[in-house]
């Protein structure tokens, strides 16, 4: 791990440090002496002094950053498509937007709108009659004592996939929207199991 001094060389110079560098260099101090005094690299001192002598200012330049590939309107369109149809894929969104962007850009714009790609919650389509029967069964057995419940074995079913398709639907959703109807998919079971 680099030392504290080495790590500081990669951070930006503050306004105070830039003023110190310019003041010490104006007095006639060497670059090495100034770098040791402000605990910065000689390269940082040289660049600061060069900017002062060339432009007459020590303010940091703020660059425009990376140019945007898509406009704000197209960004809103990406988010709207994911909200209207949560099962839409990134490639479909990219084709609809009509701009050559990578899928990671789409994911980043959706993440900024607090939309993440998650597996959809699958639920059994129970009729009100089936729900009532299940509730009655649970209520009838809720009075049992501890020794009765120690005889019950709970088992979990595992799912094994031999192919590449898991037959699961991925949806775009915000946190807390797991049970909302657009992101909820019902499982159809054979009649003898229901």
From TrEMBL:
Listed InterPro entries: Homeodomain-like_sf (IPR009057), RNaseH_sf (IPR036397), Transposase_Tc1-like (IPR002492)
Any GO molecular function: DNA binding
Cellular component aspect of the GO annotation: nucleus
Residues annotated as domain Transposase Tc1-like: 75-140
Location, primary (coarse class): nucleus
BP GO annotations: DNA integration; DNA transposition
Source taxon at top rank: Eukaryota
Gene3D superfamilies tied to this protein: Homeodomain-like, Ribonuclease H-like superfamily/Ribonuclease H
One of the Pfam families matching this protein, by short name: HTH_Tnp_Tc3_2
Localization terms from the record: Nucleus
Protein name per Swiss-Prot or TrEMBL: Transposable element Tc1 transposase
Organism (species): Trichonephila clavipes
